[in-house]
Design goal:
Layout lengths: L27 E5 L4 H12 L3 E6 L2 H13 L3 E6 L5 H15 L4 E4 L15 H26 L6 E6 L13 H21 L4 E8 L14 H11 L8 H12 L10 E4 L6
Parallel strand pairs: 1-2, 1-4, 2-3, 4-5, 5-6, 6-7
């Protein structure tokens, strides 16, 4: 459930006391897959703007580390172990969030997994089912638990699903199964957004491309090697920083995007342009 370990930028986001912006003061933000990588960067970014932050994932240690980083910087955080492929875990996660902080105002469904690397004909069935369970069913079950709570709240809530530029936007040989699951997240986002906007719940997606996490490293590749490869691999000539992806998520979760519903915001250095 947790995302891959990040590069140094994922733990260098502004601290809760280092910036003047307080867009999420008094609000509670839940981030699945919050133990590392993009999930950790998003959690830190929400905390930096005043949110109470709940981080969830299957492995307790990394979650507690993320929560500790937030608390050390003066923020408030809660770490909850949960498997997004289990509806009971997600219901308990939302209950724990509301019990601790009183509401669920923002949810980021970030937990995901990349398996494969083979053409479709050689893809192990177990890899296919694992990606479907976490990347697709996990988002569906999370949406159900989150919307159930948010529709009871006077101010509703905002949900951001993390899809990928691999999927609805571009395809790369060897990643077809992963891209299929992420294209499903894009479609699920748009459909759910149309169905639940009248409930006071805004649902959008962010589709990152290669970012500064270990997921963007090819087999045996170093960060220096990736830097060199990316000079020609994308029009921008580099990976996106985790803070850049987090900034897009915070925008879609904030009041600044109050009329944005069902969007799929691509952050990929121009790869899908």
């Amino acid at each position: 459930m947790t995302t891959p370990a990040s590069g140094t930028s994922a733990t260098s986001a502004a601290s809760p006391t280092s910036g003047a912006r307080t867009r999420f003061a008094g609000r509670t933000a839940l981030v699945t897959g919050g133990g590392s990588g993009l999930g950790r960067a998003m959690a830190l970014a929400f905390a930096a703007e005043g949110a109470n932050v709940v981080v969830a994932g299957r492995t307790e240690g990394p979650l507690k580390e993320t929560a500790g980083l937030i608390e050390d910087a003066g923020g408030t955080a809660l770490a909850v172990t949960a498997d997004v492929s289990r509806s009971a875990d997600l219901a308990a996660l939302v209950d724990a969030t509301v019990e601790r902080f009183g509401s669920l105002d923002v949810a980021v469904n970030n937990a995901g997994i990349l398996r494969g690397g083979q053409p479709v004909a050689e893809l192990p069935e177990e890899d296919w089912r694992t990606m479907l369970d976490i990347n697709v069913t996990g988002v569906l079950l999370a949406l159900q638990a989150e919307v159930k709570q948010m529709r009871t709240q006077p101010n509703g809530g905002a949900i951001v699903n993390i899809a990928s530029t691999l999927g609805a936007h571009i395809r790369v040989p060897g990643t077809t199964a992963y891209a299929t699951t992420k294209a499903a997240v894009s479609a699920l986002t748009k459909g759910a957004a149309a169905e639940h906007m009248r409930d006071g719940v805004r649902i959008n997606a962010v589709s990152p491309g290669s970012s500064d996490t270990s997921m963007s490293l090819q087999g045996g590749e170093s960060e220096a090697g990736r830097t060199e490869r990316m000079k020609t691999a994308t029009p921008l000539g580099r990976v996106s920083s985790t803070e850049e992806v987090a900034a897009a998520v915070l925008y879609l979760a904030s009041d600044e995007s109050a009329s944005v519903v069902g969007a799929d915001l691509v952050i990929d250095g121009g790869a899908a342009a």
